[in-house]
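Hey, quick one: can you model this chain's 3D structure?
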Amino acid sequence: MQHTVENQTSAQLVGMFCCSLLLNGFGNGLTVAMNLGSALWTTSAVNMSHAFGVSLLLILLLEGVAVVLFNAAVLGHLDWRRIAGNFIFMIPFSFLVSAFADVIKMTPLVTMPLVIRVGLDLIGIICIGCAISIYQRINVVIHPNDDLMQIIRFKFFHGNAAIAQVVSFLPPIIIDILCVSFTRQIYAINIGTLFSLVAQGAVIGFADMHVFPKLKHRHLQV
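Sure thing. Here's the predicted structure for all 222 residues.
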């Protein structure tokens, strides 16, 4: 499937992409710091980090590499431009999530009343969904996890973001189950995780229409 819309200047696209990258890093970092439930891929990375005793940054990078390979398998071929874009996105994103999480943990936000922290956690999930919507539509460089969702969305589900997001969450759900079985501890899984599972795809679909609404999906090849 191919669909190309060229309504934005290069400067506008770069600005929107930088906005989405920062928004996604912040949203993920906020959910990790609140520890009331992160997006499913983030929870799997956090739980693997604890299970194997290595840094979250390293796990995020290794998880990204594994998903890049899985995406190629789903597509049935190696798209080197796509893979290069995955890695270009993944490296700064991984640093941003770790950096935002570390900074937010040093603020009074983590000691706020529970109801406020739950609200902040849900805001983090919404930020993630809006950010994914933006850079999926730009579709130049994209995180492999979100590329998987986009591949599934347009290859199998006729553009339905809500269904595709749930299906793309099956691998991290399996990883979380295995890690929790091994460590007997649960990290980053809470009300925000449930919200991410049932609502993140809907947030992406909503943002497609209402956040930078003139930005349409570009260069789809699935």
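One thing worth noting: The chain has a mean pLDDT of 90.
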